[in-house]
Amino acid sequence: MLVQEVVAKYAGKARFVSENFGASPLADRFGVTRYPAVFVDDVLVARPRDFGFVGHGESTGRYTPWRDAASQAKFKADLSRMIDLVLAGKHVELESESRAAGPDPGDIASLPPFALTDFAGRPIAAGDLAGRAVVVEFWATWCPPCRSTLEWLGGLEKKYGDRLAVVALAVESPEPDARALAAAVGSGVRWAMTDAATAHAFGDVAAVPTLFVFDRAGKTAKVVYGAPPDLHAQVEGTLESLLR
């Protein structure tokens, strides 16, 4: 099994756990009802559709066609990268400036260029956010932990006002469902559907939720993968430092 091959390379720093269908607390938490699904700690790295196993055809998933050696190599590389992030960041937290060994290929040093259209029909681009601290959250409608984070993000914008821009980018989600959730959460957040180019620009985002914090000069201040219990405290502490 490819997951076991990857884990074996970490010599005791990581371990492989197999959970049966219907008996996985993590799967229940993320609303995963089909298998296989792969997690690193509480980060959902891959789900059935990524392998083309949910009836969407062999051409739709990130790792399809699964029998292709290149697709399997990409999966192993993504899984290794996520394990590295977990090991480097103490419960899936990264601060790019603190990594003495240099940046990971998936890290980004600053807010990358991107151009999307938000749910209000307005263009949204990196240049529009200049001069403010920026929080960017990649989320999905099928990710229950993302929902509480999104509600909290709306409160952040109200707290910090014009000093902070909050952007929520939906990935691999039906747009009507994403719009409905955005409407339920309310204003204060710029909502948009992301695309492959934008996900790649942010370090090839491979899991949700993934949250980035950038300072007023656009430099990366924090990246958090998953939804650790202290996520809100981590991000608010970073913002207090940036905006004091």
Task: Describe the 3D structure.
Helix 1 (2-8) packs across helix 3. A hairpin with a 2-residue loop joins strand 1 (38-40) and strand 2 (43-46). The protein has seven helices and ten strands. It has two domains: 2-89, no CATH class; 96-243, Glutaredoxin. It has 244 residues and is of the alpha+beta class. It is 33% helix and 18% strand. It has a six-stranded mixed β-sheet with strand order 3-10-9-6-7-8. Strands 1-2 form a two-stranded antiparallel ribbon. The protein has a two-stranded antiparallel sheet with strand order 4-5. Residues 54-58 and 90-106 have low confidence and may be disordered.
Structure in a nutshell:
With about 240 residues, this protein is of the alpha+beta class.
Which features characterize this protein?
7 helices; single chain; Glutaredoxin; six-stranded mixed beta sheet; alpha+beta; 2 domains; 244 residues; globular; two-stranded antiparallel ribbon
Write the layout of secondary structure elements.
Layout: H1 2-8, H2 25-30, E1 38-40, E2 43-46, H3 69-89, E3 93-94, E4 115-117, E5 123-125, E6 133-139, H4 144-160, E7 164-170, H5 175-185, E8 190-193, H6 196-201, E9 210-214, E10 220-225, H7 231-243
Parallel strand pairs: 6-7, 7-8
Antiparallel strand pairs: 1-2, 3-10, 4-5, 6-9, 9-10
CATH superfamily of the largest domain: Glutaredoxin
Tell me, what's the shape?
Answer: globular
Number of domains: 2
- Percent range of helical residues: 25-40%
Q: Number of DSSP strands?
A: 10
Largest sheet: 6 strands, mixed
CATH architecture title of the largest domain: 3-Layer(aba) Sandwich
The stretches of 5 or more residues where confidence is low (pLDDT under 50) are 54-58, 90-106
SSE arrangement, N to C: HHEEHEEEEHEHEHEEH
